Amino acid sequence: MQMPEPDRGVIGRKREIIADLQEILPQESVIYDEDELRAYENDGLTAYRQIPLIVVLPETTDQVSQVLQYCHENSIKVVPRGAGTSLSGGALPLEDGIVLGLGKFNQILETDFENRCVVAQPGVTNLGITNAVEHAGFYYAPDPSSQIACSIGGNVAENSGGVHCLKYGLTTNNLLGLKVVLIDGSILEIGGKHLDSEGYDLLGLMTGSEGLLGVVTEVTVRILQKPASARAVLLGFETSEAAGDCVASVIAEGIIPGGMEMMDRPAIHAAEDFVKAGYPLDVDALLIVELDGPPVEVDHLLERVSEIAKTHGAVYNRISESDEERARFWAGRKAAFPAVGRLSPDYYCMDGTIPRNKLPHVLTRMREMSEHYGLGVVNVFHAGDGNLHPLIMYDANKPGDLEKAEEFGGDILTLCVEVGGVLTGEHGVGVEKRDLMGSMFSEIDLNQQQRVKCAFDPDSLLNPGKVFPQLHRCAELGRMHIHRGQLPFPDIPRF
């Protein structure tokens, strides 16, 4: 896995850079001791590690602005980092780069129930927003499995989803405004408490931009009132293919559950051993389907879903009878990733998205790939919107295992694209899927995306080496040609 060639000149100026940064920030907010830097050497994609040059921990937007302006003027690369839970290597440091950590931005600045929104700093956890408003009957809808730890700023960077994104949308569907600092220190305020803005959709552009365009220092999100009623049903099937068919049929009937998750046999057993959620252990696939709304509607939809499941051969059906029981159903699913960690020394968590009706085919092909590579795979995913999270099990201490896991994962993601899907649903591209971008986008597509990058960061100092398989210099992408030091049309005003 190639990263940009480190700038030895910058590395040689480390002491000077440290002293300059300590003029901007308190001394304790500039970390440069090698042992202390190791805490930042990787994110949730632990297969790749790199000790950064320096880590800085600003506390205000003004400090972020000054740090970025300094880095811009001195050609120093910057990797923004939230809670470090990224599973695509989005916060992987660079040997010659500064990690800009946002962990001290951990305050909720405003709860506005009249406008149904919350203004938070980017280091606030996803679950922290719900905790701040649930006393008034509100919650924040996107709920990734790492919501107890992942930060809202990181959610914006990766456009995170969660088990309830089928009905309530991803981060982008629940985001109202951002405060963003650009690489030259400029501060932008995009959107706000209003529902829509005129002009270009810069809010949409920033969401999912993976730290390549700017650093988010303030987030305004939409909060929702809790539904009057919510119940979940566990549906067990003898095959994963039958469960996949059931998913497609439920959506085809016009039923949009609040959440619809699927787990295969290894995931079921791992989660049950870990959480004791009450899952059946004699089925090959388990669907968790949650319906919410008025109690009468929920009861009616549960009956319809149960009937559909029966036609697809469901051999287990258990409906939650209390909020506590429903929470246990979800606790098993949300703990599936750490639970699988007990089955293997290491695992590689993938993230691809496919059309729902391709689920049976893709699950069959993954089983065949598992046999081909000799590596186990556990399937846990957002079945309702086709967002797969295969967990490839391997042993990093066994020579060749990591390489096989990477190749296996690449084949899965390529298959997702081949059946009409995409490389990522919510984890982002980072370094993990970077070199597969050519399987989904043409060179023209990628060049156009890089032109957007160049408009915000012409020197490619923000999170370089991520997303694009080969980052061209902006001059190679059609920037203005200067002949013998003369601009064309010199009489035209420049801004």
TrEMBL record:
Residues 48-226 form the FAD-binding PCMH-type domain. Keywords: FAD, Flavoprotein, Oxidoreductase. Pfam families: FAD-oxidase_C, FAD_binding_4. Its cofactor is FAD. This is FAD-linked oxidase C-terminal domain-containing protein. The lineage of its organism: Bacteria, Pseudomonadati, Pseudomonadota, Alphaproteobacteria, Rhodospirillales.
